[in-house]
Design goal:
This protein is α/β, with parallel strands linked by helices and 250 residues long. The chain has a single domain, classed as Vaccinia Virus protein VP39 (Rossmann fold, 3-Layer(aba) Sandwich). It is 33% helix and 21% strand. Strands 5-4-3-6-7-11-8 form a 7-stranded mixed beta sheet. It has a two-stranded antiparallel ribbon with strand order 1-2. A hairpin with a 2-residue loop joins β1 and β2. α1 crosses α2 and α2 packs across α3. The protein starts with a helix and ends with a strand. The N terminus is likely disordered.
Length: 250
């Protein structure tokens, strides 16, 4: 474990925010998940597997074709699944953030919020540099500003964003309440906040158990913030009985 901690700590952003050995191991597990996903995308693209998260392997006319199988597969998956998933999970249309500067917390290796039109997109994730090293081609996404940083210490000015979103990621953070206060700091007064939140038991990469009361407590500062939807199903996934997906917004 000490070797894993050392490697991950060298790859994470230098922000003054301290993480524990347990948290380092969490980030290692998260990175391994995405590396495995990268392999699956290529098998899905090549029709070696018939579906991935419910998405049938792409037809030839649906395939984006770049110089490598890896990049072709990733960009095709992004186009067919990732962007549509954001629209569905957040229950919004493509013009929802028109004219706004938005922050996607825990974006992972995809700027999926590019599906929203006529807005300025910032994607925050502490593993951005790790994703690039693993082979995710972030250079293809024009106009996106990737921020390699922690949600507990967001490296932007106060009142910087018109909107903050998060899709199935806020339960991955290190400190939920500290993250909520950072969102308050960087979001403009009366700014838009919309989060798709997974309720579940603790796991290695999703260490935070959330429920309605915890979410209400952490975001009590946000006027009119409430749960607007709850489900056990989302694109390509059906949850167990003790889990649910919730959508919160102001």
């Amino acid at each position: 474990m000490n070797k894993i901690v050392s490697v991950i700590n060298k790859m994470l952003p230098v922000t003054g925010y301290q993480i524990s050995p347990v948290t380092s191991y969490k980030y290692h597990a998260e990175l391994e998940f995405w590396k495995n996903e990268l392999i699956k995308y290529q098998k899905w693209y090549n029709n070696e597997i018939t579906e991935h998260y419910g998405e049938p392997s792409p037809k030839d006319e649906e395939k984006i074709k770049k110089h490598s199988l890896k990049d072709s597969a990733i960009l095709t998956w992004f186009n067919i699944h990732q962007q549509i998933k954001y629209i569905e999970d957040l229950s919004l249309d493509k013009k929802a953030f028109s004219g706004m500067k938005i922050l996607d917390i825990g974006s992972g290796p995809f700027p999926s919020a590019l599906v929203f039109e006529e807005c300025e997109l910032y994607c925050l994730d502490p593993l951005i540099s790790c994703y690039i090293e693993a082979g995710f081609p972030v250079h293809y996404y024009d106009g996106v500003k990737f921020i390699c940083g922690f949600s507990e210490k967001i490296p932007t000015d106060d009142n910087f964003f018109d909107a903050v979103i998060s899709v199935n990621a806020i339960d991955h953070v290190d400190d939920f309440f500290k993250t909520a206060l950072e969102i308050k700091r960087v979001l403009k007064p009366n700014g838009k906040l919309r989060m798709h939140i997974h309720y579940h038991k603790k796991t290695q990469t999703e260490p935070i158990e959330l429920n309605d009361e915890i979410v209400k407590s952490a975001f009590g500062w946000c006027t009119n913030f409430c749960k607007i939807k709850e489900s056990k199903v989302k694109r390509g996934t059906v949850l167990n009985n003790d889990e649910s997906y919730t959508l919160w917004s102001n």
